[in-house]
UniProtKB/TrEMBL annotation:
Alphabetized SUPFAM superfamilies for the sequence: P-loop containing nucleoside triphosphate hydrolases
UniProtKB keywords: ATP-binding, Coiled coil, Nucleotide-binding, Repeat
Domain of life from the UniProt record: Bacteria
Entry annotated with the keyword Ion transport: no
Organism: Microbulbifer epialgicus
GO molecular function: ATP binding
The protein's name: ABC-F family ATP-binding cassette domain-containing protein
SMART domains linked to this entry: AAA
PROSITE patterns in UniProt: ABC_TRANSPORTER_1 (PS00211), ABC_TRANSPORTER_2 (PS50893)
Domain named ABC transporter: residues: 2-248, 312-529
Pfam family, one: ABC_tran
InterPro entries: AAA+_ATPase, ABC_tran_Xtn, ABC_transporter-like_ATP-bd, ABC_transporter-like_CS, ABCF, P-loop_NTPase
Keyword match Membrane: no
Coiled-coil stretches: 555-589
Length: 638
């Protein structure tokens, strides 16, 4: 297991961890959450051995193979397929040894036989096919897989790094923001892949629906400690809300936040039609009313004001062919955006969602047809290139002062405070900002201009969970029109009333909800792969063999033998968690200053006795867990 004991970690004058403890058992899938800059990525470096802790111990089994997702990739002439294959280092080493032995005319048949046997034992001959399947799931076409790495943009190179990490045979996988540059179909594919991953998974993510689908535990950075919660992200939110509710000041804030959200739900219910999508959003808003109290201590609180004047329609596309040069991506689009209309754009990767939203924004002219704008149209357009357009030498305050020279400095600072730019941070230059801080500033600039139509293309990339929640709340109450492209299903479900499906060269209303769309998308991708296989000669084929059948039977038999031991391990893990919780409660009682005000000596003695008993129980359980784990490892190694 992963065991952190009394770990302290400092970077400059900042304390990231101070005497932190955490245990993560083999096979668990855990989400790592916390505010930007709290030390999540630094924790990964600690586990990878790239950093040393300032105090305490970090234990990982020495035999564990670790896969991790790099954040940068150098431009090279290597093909995308070969780059991903490099993730399996043992496979690559065997390939080199075989190539060398065969090219040198080595006549040692025994040596060649051993190399081929090792290759078969690691399923190496199917390696190129497995790499191609990973790239396909991440959105790379068959032709893309042969392109050099240097030819891809930064976001697609990050996908290559993800594919390379998934290719690595691993006992522990560390993934840092894997969905940041993925669209919804690639995100759904990754969910399914990680659900099948048999090892231990630690994943940093700000996508709550993704975490809900993948993890069975949450490690939260709280006041320089690591707090482990059982269950997925939604379960963490409930636990956190209950804990905050025990604090009177926070409880009062909770009640106000809950009342505000429930009032909004009531107003929306009165307006909602019986359309399936409107009802889906109503259910989502009901859930938001319950989870809102878990975020009352968020540093982000803002609204999105709308322009005083509006037009009807705001924008009207008529028989518009959308695309680039002579290539039409979406044909004959008929779309009118009226005030208050809230649209989510759905569709597979490359279908034209971003092209459609660029056309609405006026950044891309229709190849044919018309784009007509209302007299009082005021567009707020957010896309990733907006981050690059920020003036790196200017501060957040200066960005807004350029838009409104007559506005008072205090009003601008108050406005920026809702986006997390507090105190002297409003004077810092953009050059030193993280991607999340730049995204927050771009949203603040957009909101300051009071648009009556928001066009948002993946606005949550780089945003942490608290900022995503604040954005969701603000968009839910935005009085203007909204067109949204996002892989964040929570954001889509809570802010849009209808969907338009962009697929097969068309943009048409979609009557289903996001669960229906997930099934449609999975079916679409299956059909697409089936079509590609029928029209192209498949370069790599995995053929079943009697050897593989025997391996599967042997694996099934081993699992059956291990079942009593693994069940016992799970029971012990639950007992350890319960005992640790008891110890924490006793520690809190013993730390209460009122206990030592006099006359409570018997209670102090009782608590000390119970604490000693619980520690003894914990030691016994941990020894039992280690003994059984050794038995399991011995049986697996036979």
């Amino acid at each position: 297991m992963i065991n952190l004991q009394g770990v302290s970690l400092h970077r400059g004058e900042r304390d990231l961890l101070d005497g932190a403890d955490c245990r993560i058992f083999p096979g668990h899938k855990v989400g790592i959450i916390g505010a930007n800059g709290c030390g999540k990525s630094t924790l990964f470096k600690l586990l990878l051995g790239q950093l040393e802790s300032d105090a305490g111990q970090v234990y990982l089994p020495s035999t564990w193979r670790i896969a991790h997702m790099a954040q940068e990739v150098e431009a090279s002439e290597q093909s995308a397929l070969d780059y991903v294959l490099d993730g399996d280092q043992e496979l690559r080493q065997l390939q080199e040894q075989l190539t060398l032995a065969e090219s040198s005319g080595d006549t040692d048949g025994h040596k060649l036989g051993e190399l081929h046997e090792r290759m078969a034992s690691i399923d190496g001959y199917s390696g190129p096919a497995r790499a191609a399947q990973l790239l396909d799931g991440l959105g790379f076409s068959h032709a893309d897989q042969q392109r050099p790495v240097r030819s891809f943009s930064g976001g697609w190179r990050i996908r290559l790094n993800l594919g390379r990490a998934l290719m690595c045979p691993a006992d522990l996988m560390l993934l840092d923001e894997p969905t940041n540059h993925l669209d919804l179909d690639a995100t759904l594919w990754l969910e399914q892949w990680l659900q099948r991953f048999p090892g231990t998974l630690l994943i940093i993510s700000h996508d709550r629906d993704f975490l809900d689908a993948v993890v069975d535990g949450i490690v939260s950075f709280e006041q320089h400690k690591l707090v482990l919660y059982s269950g997925n992200y939604s379960a963490f939110e409930r636990s956190r809300a209950e804990r905050l509710a025990q604090q009177q000041i926070q409880y009062e804030k909770q009640q106000a936040e809950r009342a505000h959200m429930e009032d909004f739900v009531r107003r929306f219910r009165a307006k909602a039609s019986k359309a399936k999508q409107a009802q889906s959003r109503l259910k989502a808003l009901d859930r938001m009313a319950q989870i809102a109290p878990a975020h009352v201590d968020s540093p982000f609180h803002f609204t999105l004001p709308s322009a005083d004047k509006t037009s009807n329609p705001l924008i009207d596309l008529r028989e518009a062919n959308i695309g680039y040069a002579d290539k039409v991506v979406v044909h004959q689009v008929q779309l009118g955006i009226q005030p208050g209309r809230r649209i989510g754009l759905l569709g597979p990767n490359g279908a034209g969602k971003s092209s459609l939203i660029k056309t609405l924004a006026g950044e891309l002219s229709p190849l044919s047809g018309k784009r007509q704008c209302g007299e009082h149209l005021a567009i707020g357009y957010f896309a990733q290139h907006q981050l690059e357009a920020l003036d790196s030498a200017a501060s957040p305050l200066l960005h807004l002062q350029r838009l409104s020279p007559d506005a008072s400095e205090q009003s601008l600072r108050d406005f920026l405070g809702g986006y997390g730019f507090i105190g002297d941070r409003v004077f810092e230059t953009v050059a030193g900002f993280s991607g999340g801080e730049k995204a927050r500033l771009a949203l603040a600039i957009l909101a300051w201009q009071k648009p009556n139509l928001l066009l948002l293309d993946e606005p949550t990339n780089h945003l942490d969970l608290e900022m995503r929640h604040a954005l969701t709340m603000a968009l839910a109450e935005f009085p203007g029109a909204l067109v949204l492209v996002s892989h964040d299903r929570h954001l889509l479900a809570n802010t849009t009333d209808e969907f338009i499906l962009v697929a097969d060269g068309r943009a048409a209303p979609y009557s289903g909800d996001l669960d229906d769309y997930k099934q449609w998308l999975l079916g679409f991708n299956r059909d697409k792969r089936r079509e590609e296989k029928s029209t192209e000669e498949c370069e790599y084929t995995i053929r079943p063999s009697e050897v593989k059948k025997a391996q599967r039977r042997a694996a099934a038999a081993l699992r059956e033998q291990l079942k009593p031991l693994t069940n016992k391990l799970k029971t012990i893990e639950r007992q350890i968690a319960s005992t640790e919780e008891n110890l924490n409660q006793i520690q809190e009682l013993l730390a209460d200053e009122n206990l030592y005000s006099g006359g409570q000596q018997e209670e102090i003695s009782r608590l000390n006795k119970v604490q000693a008993e619980q520690r003894e129980i914990l030691d016994t359980l941990e020894m039992e867990w280690l003994d059984i784990s050794e038995q399991v490892e011995a049986m697996q190694g036979k």
